[in-house]
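Predict the assembly for these two chains.
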Amino acid sequence: MRENPICVRLAALREKMLEYGIDIYIVPSSDCHESEYVSAHFRAREYITGFTGSAGTAVITMEEAGLWTDGRYFLQAEGQLKRSGIRLYRMGEPDVPTVREYVESQLGQGKCIGFDGRVMGASKALEFEQAARAQGASLLALEDLVGMIWTDRPDIPDAEIFVLEECYSGEPADNKIARVRCAMEEQRADVHVLASLCDISWLLNLRGGDIPCVPVVLSFLVMTLRTCVWYVRPSIVTDEIRNYLSKHGVEIRGYDEIYSDLKTLPAGTRVLVDRKNVNYRLLKSLPVSTVVIDQSNPTEIMKAVKNETEIKNIREAHRKESIAFTRFLYRLKTGKANLTELSAAEYLDACRAEQEHCLGQSFTPICAYGAHGAIVHYSATAETDAPILQENFLLVDAGGHYLEGTTDTTRTIAMGSLSLKQKRMYTAVLRANLRLAYAKFLKGATGYSLDALCREPLWQLGVDFKHGTGHGVGYLLNVHEGPNAFRLRIPKGEEPAELQPGMVTTDEPGVYIAGDYGIRLENELLCVEGPSNEYGQFLEFEILTLIPFDRAAILPEEMDSEELRWLNAYHQRVYETVGPYLPEEEREWLKACTARLQLGKSE
Amino acid sequence: MRENPICVRLAALREKMLEYGIDIYIVPSSDCHESEYVSAHFRAREYITGFTGSAGTAVITMEEAGLWTDGRYFLQAEGQLKRSGIRLYRMGEPDVPTVREYVESQLGQGKCIGFDGRVMGASKALEFEQAARAQGASLLALEDLVGMIWTDRPDIPDAEIFVLEECYSGEPADNKIARVRCAMEEQRADVHVLASLCDISWLLNLRGGDIPCVPVVLSFLVMTLRTCVWYVRPSIVTDEIRNYLSKHGVEIRGYDEIYSDLKTLPAGTRVLVDRKNVNYRLLKSLPVSTVVIDQSNPTEIMKAVKNETEIKNIREAHRKESIAFTRFLYRLKTGKANLTELSAAEYLDACRAEQEHCLGQSFTPICAYGAHGAIVHYSATAETDAPILQENFLLVDAGGHYLEGTTDTTRTIAMGSLSLKQKRMYTAVLRANLRLAYAKFLKGATGYSLDALCREPLWQLGVDFKHGTGHGVGYLLNVHEGPNAFRLRIPKGEEPAELQPGMVTTDEPGVYIAGDYGIRLENELLCVEGPSNEYGQFLEFEILTLIPFDRAAILPEEMDSEELRWLNAYHQRVYETVGPYLPEEEREWLKACTARLQLGKSE
């Protein structure tokens, strides 16, 4: 029997640890930018453990090796860690230590913690630093030990960079840079260090392809009130891009030069840097004589509030996505073709690809039939790929990138006759979705204030869903974007963001019956102004997604008259917007799908 | 023309300021315990300005004198400050400096700020301390200059202290003290200093009469893990109370001795003290060598979560209050007597006084007819007392103290025929009230999560109310009690409290049409456990207040079927609980008031 390759890698890593005098080596899942998704080059934790899930942390000592991951991945990790000698730590389960607690238990006078400070977030790394100091241990964050032993490491993709023209971005880069400088002046900051890839791409109106599903460019940015330097691999910067940036007053330097450049900042320099969003080595490159202003990146709120051009475009992107998704629904509901989860997802991709300016998926779609629908983060593989039968629910959560913006939609489709309970649950999820979508509220409300409006119809039935109600959506960037979100609980220390006109947030309640089915209904909501009167400025939402809900699953008698009015008005908009782009037969089908529902007999 | 007495007092105060070398003297409205209400003895700000409102701060320099108060009191303060030479600063209006900004503008090298450190909250005082330090000024917080010139100052009332027996409190004092000690151990605190009068009264199961409407005893308390010392005026402690306390391990010392006792704490002592809830001199009496643990008083959450005995009693208190209020409504709706705002309030008091164990009002009632109802903090005086006519709305917000607990209720009564708009607004406020009262929610939700459920029916009409949706209620203590509350906005830096079974919170949405009328409907809600299942522990509310809503003001066709079911079920409970205690004629009237409402024709 051949030796498990993971054991070979661990042995090689331990040799390096010995060489550098490191007792505890930590391998996180991140790149140098605290990105949610990372390219293959940065999957060091996957390389050293064999576990391919998106979230997890490995900790290796001379005697032990452990992997920490969350509930989504317990089964997968168990399988992939077999015979590796790596122990699985199930995060959140009783009596399972956190990474920090484990590291602390291994520490002691003279011990040394190590990690690659470029791929460890500053906030988390500062906790390890503190733990080491408290026990008379040391910390070495300069060495990428996994990189040293990783012989066939994938390159960073040399994806093409392109300029997002003003007809799409709505605001030239120099304007955006000037606005960030105003924000710096308000904080009396001399320098601003930006590592978040989406923020940099938004600021410079550039897009690339360095991360799957997120069209950004691996880079850093450092601004003063007069200069702006973009740190990027020179090999991917064409003359055209160089000229473009030069016109906007942006200078270019090598990707790795940022660390040495920061070290030369003069004493007393006030540096605006968001600790949650930079890596440890960046933070540590700032001389101790500088003053760190730890605030959110000013670009975070600027890019969340979409401008008029972006809003016009986003409506267009949703029209296209809604046409593609509706055609996909038509095939599902009327086609006799034998689709599986994977082939259905492919067919949706094909429908989307017919649309102009489409740049592909905004995330790996979830196409989950029956019991798979109850697994919130299910992703079909060749092994799990289930045939879609003429019964139960199919849950499809998918989205696309267009030059006109990014989309994220979920529909749950009745594939045959449903039980009364299934219809009740679908109707409750629909009511939850509509209650939030048609909310009116005073300026000052946050996504935390409104969350209960969505959950209340489910709570009345003693049901809840264990995920957020909605997240912000980027513009041809990450489909998950802050600071706006609908959430039940405010994370400790977080200042919730007020909802503002121009913010786009998803509205995606669900019900999940383990082993049976899952229902989620997701629309994107654009925050818009309502009336302004003596009570203040009212706000409301415009629903961007225009795809029919499934009337085969709706019990009108369980909805109140206002909710039915909302549903009928929504379906009318769907028909009017999407109908004209469909072939006659599909249009007639859509007309029937969106016809008025009448009040049930119980009222 | 006689000289205004305020001018004489200001001149005397300025002489004292000269004597002590003070340039800026600040007089707040508080007692030594940061109490919401204070007894006459502590109304130094009223004495020195002539302004009798409950909230305000006076600042006196050698040349100027100013009074800061909020919007509730602008008109009253304008009148009362006339010819006093004191300038009114309207807090919250544009270009009006805050007290702190004004004080800072008057400061400079060598200047001296003064105030009586016993009646200034520690958090606020620390800001003045910082302002003084920043400008090279000094601060003198030892002298009560107003007290020196206040010749006819009222005494502190020598109200009787009584023990709240275990059949009312549900838990002996030594048990409560032991629980606080556990909380101290969790924080590794050696000493706990408690100045909040309600917390002390709750802890010792004692009640008194040192503050109008709040049956507490002016006192401090200092605990260690072994000792417990109550600092109180010895003159009011009877032998019975002394024996009672001794049995519970509580020692007694003089009210003012706390300051010198704290000064003797050994270096390194860890002192648990809630800075928001102690006066400046107390905080400053702690030697700098001690370690301050600035956390909420452990008693705050303990007293907010009512025990089973308290809950049983509170239901009883609400039954009594509901009987009294219903009899009052009967008189209003059927009596031909010519009542005014003041005489109506007196009649309600008389109805309450008929109930056993009633200990008077829990706050000064608001009995506001017609346009007065739109003034949220209206309080009728002999000058404003309006006759109640056979038209428009009468708003009555009142509550009582009983041995069985404290109540707070608002009803708005149609005194004659109403306009369609008035009925629409009443119906919307009623829907708002019911939506919150019948909410079901997951444990983990706070009063901020649920607030929008209440406001949404009003927001849908473009209407809002500019006050909190609800506050916690004490048990024979302050009618306003934290930490639970229903609020739209979380104050900066505050950690919202999770709703827990046993918490009692008011539910009091309103609509206020200036110059016309006000509508507020207030019930108290007890948080109770709902089902527990795979999603977690659900919570819901039991409505404690059982007083009919006014069907003459309700439009059933504007309510959905679920809301009507809730209303009918509530009215049935009202009739079943209150009816048996009414004379036959009143019971028949109540039966008609609480009869089922049918769905309107529009559905």
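The two ends of chain B are 71 Å apart (CA to CA). Chain B has a mean pLDDT of 95.
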